[in-house]
Design goal:
heterodimer; A: alpha+beta; 4 helices; 5 strands; elongated; B: 154 residues; alpha+beta; Thiol Ester Dehydrase, Chain A; five-stranded antiparallel beta sheet; 21% helix
Amino acid sequence: MALNYDDVEVGKKMPVYTSMPITRTHLVRYAGASGDFNPLHYDQTFAKMIGMKNIIAHGMLIMGIAGEAITFWIENKYLRKFNVRFLSMTEPVDLDDMENTKDRATIIVSGGVVKKFEENGEKRIQCDIIAQDALGSKKLSGFFIAALP
Amino acid sequence: MADKSKLGMEFPTYTFVVEKDKIVEFAIAVSQKEDKEQINPIYYDEEAAKKAGYQGIPVPPTFPTSSFFWTGGGLMATVKTLGIDLSKLLHREEEYEYFGSIYAGDVITRKMKVIDMLKKGTRDKIVEVTVLETELINQRGELVLKYRTKLIER
């Protein structure tokens, strides 16, 4: 799967990556793994107290999923920069209403090469990246830079 | 409301070890898997990692943000220091610059400072913005990563 600089053209798309519908269990697991225990991500009573109707996923979980999408295509060690701006909140799926809630909790990551250049003696590519849910609502957008062999 | 006097403030320096099992736990979390046999072996098997061209077990790209939560009392203590209201806190932007690699067993020193604090928006809707910059330095004194975190109060 090794990707070479010379084989990559501007406009090339990265493989589209689709997450599983994010459950509350995924949020709890991410909270424990990352150490981000903001109750907004798992405690319904806290969400209610601050005027939100539901708990929401960690933005960093969505970015982590985007990171998975990238490293599915380009090896981790080649990454030089990764930048995102968070655009909207993500509510987890309700297990008792999968049909109506799974799309809002399914993250689809896509992107493509926008620039090829040399920097610090390396051949680098810059790619745009975007994550949206299955309803089309944008969760984050940004870019990453990778140095390729 | 963020305490503007904290602009330029440097947080105390912390040192932590990159635990092998924590990498596995994180890789499972972001790939939404159940156990380690389902994740990329470079995150748990040193042989597989070396075969793939790493000097040790690497960390997933967004793993370094955990250093924010594992040191200095974590999120709650940090927002308190900054005067940020947790109930209004939102994460706006995150950027990583990778200068080197972080491997399992590395001893990382975290240096974090407040590089910007401002108000943005119109008279009706003011958003408070705080930007933190964190440097992660390994046991050999090499700057391996820098990340910038933009937090807002909605």
